[in-house]
Every structure is written in structure tokens, then in C-alpha cells.
Amino acid sequence: MSYDVASVRGQYVSLGDGWTYLNAHARPQIPETVSAAVSRSFRLAGCVADAESSSGSHSKQQTAGRLEADSLLASARIAVADLCGSSPERVVLGSSLPSLYMSLSQAMRPLLRHNSSVVLSRLDSPELNYPLEGLSAEVRWAQPDLGTGMLPSSQYTELVDGSTRLVSLSAAQSLLGTVAPVAEIVDYSRSRSRAWVLVEASAYAAYRPLAADQWDADIVALDLAALGGPQLGALVFRDSAMFRRLDQIREAPVAPGLAGGVPAMVGHLAGLSETIGTRRTRLQRSMGELDGYLKSLTDELYFLLGGLSSVHILGVSGEAGDGGAGDRVPRLSFAVRGVPAETVHQRLIDNGLVTTILPASQLFSEMGVDEVGGAVTASLAPFNTRYDIEHLTRVVASLA
């Protein structure tokens, strides 16, 4: 079954404004079904839920007078569980991913000893690393390959030992697109310690089928807004028995109206292609087709944009780059030699292309971004087409 991008584009009303959106890494477009679900949920959250009159074995058991808000939160947990291949009792919702990381760091205190260590990754977002740096433990850093932006798994044999209580990393770097060898890192960590492995999977789950048990990670973290959903975060634990080893995780209050958009978001991802079965089955098949479609577009993007002699794609171009051979999701950051990033970004905006300027950071400076005047980040979404890539390449070529 082929991926029908025209049908997918019809599910995003915002695409009718004439802009070409290549900024899924920063502000994904919201499907109409999600925005409609959030609007409806805010209206109904304070209402009393309808109780089923049936008493059959498959009927919902509801407490009389129960508000819709409770049902909305429960449905959101079920939807996140379907997305990850988990169960709803293992899902913790929060108002944002940073707030959940802060709550997790506080709840992990019973696991720490005076000589404990945690292993973090330089590729991860500073706002997610910050709460974990505050743990009463030695912080060790996993370093990326500065030429490719990849995260070598072999270094974890030295970073992880018997004192390690937590290993945290991202499954995919949100601005470079590089995919981490999560399963290998989990294996290394398991063989050398009893540490929990926390995997931030938002950039990965936006493009590929997600099955947490394939990684065998202890906790999977998701920014639901990064998937085109409401501004909420979620932590999905491998086993509900893990909660007994923690202090209670304090959930920041979650607006039920926002939670009402989560099932719609997961349903949208499950419906990107025509397939049948349970929501989990449809998700796996639909995201598999999306992955295949976007991989072909990404190959075209590297070929067309990377073919411009003045363009340097971080991690791909140059002698130290891998030429695009590494595992990546469809996100990249590029520079035009001799042209400041602000100028490149403005030329793209003037031609109807929405991208972002790569933020300043120590990592990107070490990768040589400052030397070329900064870089611009572009990323694909389920609705992008080959025309969008060609349009981007033509505009960038005009600066060469």
C-alpha cells in the first residue's frame, strides 16, 4: 500500500495559508482532528459523564456523577500506552517533559547512594539534562562524534559501572536527526550495572513505529506536542513495580481539555495510511509507511541540498561527515559558506519557507557552526512533498 500524501495534507487545515512548513522540530502543525478534540474536551471536562445502562461484561464501570475530566485523563494514558506498546498504568502524564524530568529526579532519591553516578548525553536538550544534573550523584557525559553527530555506544563500557543509577539519552537528536543505538546502549548498561535507562523518544516517535520493549529501556519519555499533539509530556515505565522503588512522582496538574487531544493525536498517526486492526496495529503499520515515505524524501534532500558545493550539512558534509550513510530521521541543520545564518533564514522566509536558525550551544560550536556563520535547521513532517524539497534547494542555491 502506497503512502497517500495528498490525503494526509487534507488533514491539516493550516496548510492552506500558502507557507511551506519545514519546522516540525520546532512547532509541528496541528491536525484538525486534534484541535477539534481539544476544543470539545474543554467544553465537556466539567460535565458529568454519561453512565452506560448496560451491565454486560464489556460495559464501562463508572461511578455515578463522575466528571468527563476523569475519563479524558484515562483515555490519554491509554492512547500513550498504545503509542509505545505499553499499558496505561505505567504512564505518567505531566504538563511538560522538563517538569516530569524534575519530578523524576526528586523521586529517584531512594535509589541513590553516596557514591552514585548518572550518565547523560551531550546530544540531549540542556533543559532536560538540567534536572538530572541536580541529582546527588557524579555526572558523567557521553560525547558524540563531532564529525557525524552520532552517539558511539562503545563509550558506555567505560562510563557505566556498578555505581551508575541512571543512564539518560535521546533516541534521535532533534536538530541533527542522528539516531542513537539505544538497544546497544541498554545492553551495555545492563551488563555493567543495575542502572535505569531513560530514553527521550519524541523526535524518533514522530517518524517511526515506537515499541519500547524492543529497546528494553526502563523509562520512555515523550513530548506529545512534538508529535502534533497538545502541550503535554509523558513518562512510560517498563514495569509498574518500578513505582515502589521511587518516592511518589508529583504530577504537575494536567488540563483535562488538553488531555482530550491525546487520543485524537494518536488516532491521527494511526490513520496516516488506510489499514485495519486495533489502534496499536494501525499505528505500527501507518508509521511504518510514513517512515518509508520520508526516508525516500530524506535521501532526495541530502542529494539535492548536499549537492550544492556551498552547502555544508552538519554531520554529513566534509571529510569528517558520513555522507548521509548514518541512521537519521528527516531533520538536518545546514550552513551556506560565506552567508550568515540570519541571511539564509530571511531568504527562505521571503520565499515562503518556514525553518529556524540553529540555536547557539557548546556542542554546535565544537562542530564548527560558528566558523561558518551559523546554521539553519529544516525538518520534514507527514505532509511534506518532493516539491517542498525542490523549493528549499532552489532558494538555497540562489544564495550560493
Automatic annotation (TrEMBL):
<feature type="domain" description="Aminotransferase class V">
    <location>
        <begin position="53"/>
        <end position="239"/>
    </location>
</feature>
<dbReference type="InterPro" id="IPR000192">
    <property type="entry name" value="Aminotrans_V_dom"/>
</dbReference>
<dbReference type="InterPro" id="IPR015424">
    <property type="entry name" value="PyrdxlP-dep_Trfase"/>
</dbReference>
<dbReference type="InterPro" id="IPR015421">
    <property type="entry name" value="PyrdxlP-dep_Trfase_major"/>
</dbReference>
<dbReference type="Pfam" id="PF00266">
    <property type="entry name" value="Aminotran_5"/>
</dbReference>
<dbReference type="InterPro" id="IPR015422">
    <property type="entry name" value="PyrdxlP-dep_Trfase_small"/>
</dbReference>
<protein>
    <submittedName>
        <fullName>Cysteine desulfurase</fullName>
    </submittedName>
</protein>
